[in-house]
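Bench log, entry 3. Co-assembly request; chain sequences pasted below exactly as received.
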Amino acid sequence: MKLLSLYVLITATLCVRAAVPCTIVASGGDDAPVLALALASCRQVLIPKDTTLSIRTALNTTNVKNTHLSLQGTIKYYEDLEYWGANAFPFEFQNVYTFWLLGGKGIVVDGGGVIDGNGQFWWDGLTTNSSLVRPIPLTVYQGDGVIIRNITMKQAPFWFNLVHTSKNVVYSDITIRTTSNGNKSSNTDGWDTYRSNRVAIINSDIINSDDCVSFKPNSTNILVSNLNCTGSHGISVGSLGQYPQYIDIVENVTVRNVNLTNASNGVRIKVWAGANRGSGRVNNILYENTRVNNVDNPLVFDQCYMTNATACAAQAARVDITNVTVRGITGTSSGSAKSLIASLICSPGAVCENIRVDDFSVEPPEQYKPGTTKCSNLDVQGNAADLFDCASTV
Ligand SMILES: *[C@@H]1O[C@H](CO)[C@@H](O)[C@H](O)[C@H]1NC(C)=O
Ligand SMILES: *[C@@H]1O[C@H](CO)[C@@H](O)[C@H](O)[C@H]1NC(C)=O
Ligand SMILES: *[C@@H]1O[C@H](CO)[C@@H](O)[C@H](O)[C@H]1NC(C)=O
Ligand SMILES: *[C@@H]1O[C@H](CO)[C@@H](O)[C@H](O)[C@H]1NC(C)=O
Ligand SMILES: *[C@@H]1O[C@H](CO)[C@@H](O)[C@H](O)[C@H]1NC(C)=O
Ligand SMILES: *[C@@H]1O[C@H](CO)[C@@H](O)[C@H](O)[C@H]1NC(C)=O
Ligand SMILES: *[C@@H]1O[C@H](CO)[C@@H](O)[C@H](O)[C@H]1NC(C)=O
Ligand SMILES: *[C@@H]1O[C@H](CO)[C@@H](O)[C@H](O)[C@H]1NC(C)=O
Ligand SMILES: *[C@@H]1O[C@H](CO)[C@@H](O)[C@H](O)[C@H]1NC(C)=O
Ligand SMILES: *[C@@H]1O[C@H](CO)[C@@H](O)[C@H](O)[C@H]1NC(C)=O
Ligand SMILES: *[C@@H]1O[C@H](CO)[C@@H](O)[C@H](O)[C@H]1NC(C)=O
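Structure output for the full assembly:
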């Protein structure tokens, strides 16, 4: 191992001078140290097409500067559940873990290759251990100026991507695939953003089994556009207000041109109410041109998330929802909610205002027509306002 590192270090130094890529060769053992060293010392790092790197130890590459990683082959996480249980990097936020912290300034990852989370081992493990640590394959952490493009990500044990404490991050041309050959995958969100500013997720195709994209606390100035999301839980703001000690802000988010197929939700905003809720705001959100195809709940705002009606009235949500426009949802619901095609529920006495719904044209399956909606404690504006009977508005 020592010799190998030395070899890489020397080649790395030479490579930087010669401006040719440091090419990483699979060692047959753990390739994490070599990859980490190359990212720390080379301007260009190449993982060739026929190479599969086995990552057996946690990857901390948080200080990468002006580096291009051309991932043409595969990065695959090793199925040692016990090792990762003890050594994956933990986050306080939602008690999640990651295999790989990638951060720094000026990073490009592309090349058409694969990040393989080897998730089936974890989904199997989950059946006998509900507290199993299931790491996230790629976390952009304390990154500024990070581009991840033209990569396939498959089989995440848990979420695929977390963007944490970062800014100026772009994902494009990403293919996400979750396929289970037995015990089902679980919590395989495509992306979660947290404490991050200026993030774009564009031109990507996702097949997974949880949120396609989820904007978690303090996600600001976000663009999501041109996605196909299949089998997901939709594109969600939140949940927010889960922790009483925090102010949660999701502001300036545009979600445009998204196809949602076979999903449990489409466009969704979820905010906690009740005794232990936190505060904050969801402000200036635009969902534009969403096609739904066989989606259980095409449009859902829930400001009483995980809170029963009594508690929601007694302890109103303290995360305000303002300035939200949903323009152009077209397509079909699945009928699993029968005739219901939209549900906008605000917490009694909370701030929930300037909500517009335009061009809403969703049909339930034939036997449930016509479609119905639910609405409470808000005043819906926009050309679809007539679809919403918000009689209980206070
Ligand atoms: C990752 O490495 C950096 C040094 O580059 C260190 O400061 C940081 O504490 C490490 N992070 C974790 C979670 O180990
Ligand atoms: C992705 O990378 C492959 C291999 O480098 C390349 O052939 C292909 O054109 C790239 N695709 C895009 C969309 O950039
Ligand atoms: C469940 O997984 C956790 C974390 O991966 C581990 O610490 C614990 O020992 C496992 N429990 C059992 C019963 O294996
Ligand atoms: C599900 O996981 C359990 C526990 O690891 C395993 O015994 C079983 O074979 C798996 N089921 C399938 C269908 O793969
Ligand atoms: C979405 O799927 C359609 C139909 O399969 C395809 O034409 C389109 O290119 C896909 N879009 C993206 C961004 O992958
Ligand atoms: C959404 O699906 C339609 C119909 O299949 C397709 O024309 C369009 O390109 C898709 N949008 C994206 C962003 O892929
Ligand atoms: C979000 O940002 C606000 C304002 O900067 C801050 O007070 C709050 O603690 C942050 N919340 C989280 C969850 O980081
Ligand atoms: C949201 O956008 C407005 C208008 O561009 C801007 O004034 C505000 O600072 C932005 N909010 C955040 C958190 O960046
Ligand atoms: C959606 O679900 C239907 C019915 O289960 C299935 O026939 C279809 O192939 C699915 N579509 C996609 C894109 O997976
Ligand atoms: C509503 O939730 C509160 C707080 O969790 C609980 O104490 C109460 O029993 C619940 N009421 C009903 C009707 O379920
Ligand atoms: C909502 O938009 C209105 C009109 O643009 C603006 O006056 C108000 O400050 C916004 N609300 C918040 C919480 O920023």
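The chain has a mean pLDDT of 95. The pocket of 2-acetamido-2-deoxy-beta-D-glucopyranose (ligand 5) is lined by residues 203-205, 226, 228 (CB under 6 Å).
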